[in-house]
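Troubleshooting log. The previous structure file for this entry was overwritten by mistake, so regenerating from the original sequence record. Sequence copied from the archived sheet and checked twice against the printout by T.R.
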Amino acid sequence: MIFPWSIARYGYVMTAAFLVNGLLVVVFALGLGQTLPGTTASRAAATLLLLAGFAMLGLAFTTDASIRRTPATWHGIIHDLSFAGVGLTLFPSMLAFGWAFRQSSGWRGLSTYTWLTAALAVPTFALKGVAFYVFLAAVLVWTAKVAWKLKKMADLSPSNLSSLPR
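Regenerated output below.
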């Protein structure tokens, strides 16, 4: 199920977080796709990140308990497939972004950082406990750095510069 039917007492908070995060990743992917040069790598990266955002939206469906004696529910299956979808789209998008950043002079400084973040995040994605928080932190910091670069570029865009007082 979605929304109030959560597996834990405060599961609705996690459901809301998945929905907000998924929507923000979709918007982020669209913004990056419009900002980067229209290379094959940047289009692939933005598309994969867009799909990762949609997969994150699917995580809002309530998961099934890890240990259970009943068959998987339809919403638990959607949640699990969405989790796999995040892994199958987020990491390839980061690799493609690394390549797209390498090809663009304005973004080149983030290329190696993006690949190193992916190298750190991939092995921690499937682990439980503290290691999974390493994944979350690595991806969050990467997203913040890329968003900051995107903001700085928007602040310096010709349309914004023309409105400055002379």
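The chain has one domain: 11-65+75-157. Archived copy saved in two places this time.
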